[in-house]
Amino acid sequence: MSPRSRPGPADLTARLREALDTATCRSLADVLHPYVCWNPPDGSGPGCHTRSHVLSLCARLHALGLRADIEETFTYPAAVVLGLRIHGTVPPADPRTVVYHVFDVADGLVTRITGYTDRSQALDAAFPRATAAGPEH
Question: Roughly how many angstroms between the first and final C-alpha of the chain, as a whole number?
């Protein structure tokens, strides 16, 4: 994807929502930076450090039957926050809990994905001045 055709923050939010709603992680490939890092909530695993690693993990989680319902989204100039309810029969599935993933964005690509179990920590990480500026919903 050329720098001119890279999505803006609202487009990126829609793209992430579509990928999760349709359970097709492959559609994420062109919005992930080649060296994207993914850190699970509370350090619950080793994480990932490349686009192919993130896509492989996503495919494995879907193969295990894990699905995510998006509970809420927040779009900032340099980050997108998704509140996710994870469903399935294996960990980390817990439909009683919402986890938050912050997708840091630079030049239209996701450069880092960090998981949080606490909503306010995720929002603070996404945009420290959020209470002053407010997100786009």
Answer: 26
